[in-house]
Fold:
Amino acid sequence: MLYQADGSGETGHSFSSDIKSDNHFDVIIIGSGPAGYTASIYTSRAKLKTLIITGSLPGGQLMTTSEVENYPGFPNGIFGPELMINMKQQSERFGTAMITDEVKKVNFNQRPFEIYTESSIYTAESVLISTGATPRKLGIEPEQAFAGRGISYCATCDGPFFKDQHIVVVGGGDTALEEASFLTKFGKSVKIIHRREHLRASKILQERAFENPKIEFVWNSSVVDIKGDNKISSIIIKNIKNGEEKKLNVGGLFVAIGHEPNTSIFKGQIEMDDKGYVIVNNYTQTNIDGVFASGDVHDHRYRQAITAAGFGCMAALDIEKWLAEKRN
Ligand code: NAP
Structure:
């Protein structure tokens, strides 16, 4: 069958596995978090020639997480990096090819699709975008040094490690308020530091937070420094209106100021919402026939390893079906 970039008609590209190049694949998966690895386990196991282009740091966000206690199947928990290495090995077992490289450019306007990395060009009948999202950072110097040593970007993941400690949450959106409320189950105290005096969060979450006796708000303030030896022991906050600085003793600092989807290389190639998240229709399909998306790159609501893995599975099944239909 011959068809065009929009999936119809004729372009001169024969849609079958007849391209023999080593760089040509049935499926190219961009990104190696739980979504990408899970999808590859399914597509490789279904005998589709699959390549994962992992990015420069294979494994995604879980590589910087400590213990994961809520991924089913590990009753005693598992370290994030170990979980990702397990997924990688499971994927390799079924023959997935893997390249540790960054994708620099894609061309979805022709078939087969073209994927450019620093060193090579790959072609594919179908593409899965699973490049994830990156939590927004405070952007202050000690932040990097304390990551995993008191700073967290995910309360659901790390909250239980901060039992009976003084906790600070930064942000004024739904995530910050939901995380603060969750963290009151563990922390001795929970303070929300927000840079304005009005919250962006929905009214219902605001009401719940205001009613929660364990949550205290600190308005018009931002975190300007982080102190501690091996772990965070205190932070310095600054009142944006009067410039006053104050020290707060804290054991845990949760940064909940939003996420940035990793989609810059797809700009102009596929439909995204105003925040840059890939728009999916009909479960995992993008607006380009044959290009799919799964995980945090389109899901800004759940953002869990297990939901990303679930979306990866869904995308793989959709790809399998899509390829089978096109090839008949
Ligand atoms: P968000 O809505 O973009 O809110 C980010 C918050 O962080 C804002 O209050 C913002 O302040 C603040 N902020 C941004 N950059 C900052 C910086 N550099 N320093 C200090 N503060 C900064 O992000 P989100 O809360 O993660 O929510 C993302 C999306 O998911 C939203 O659409 C939200 O509704 C949705 N969500 C829904 C639920 C739910 O329905 N239960 C739960 C979680 C998330 P300003 O307000 O001053 O801009």
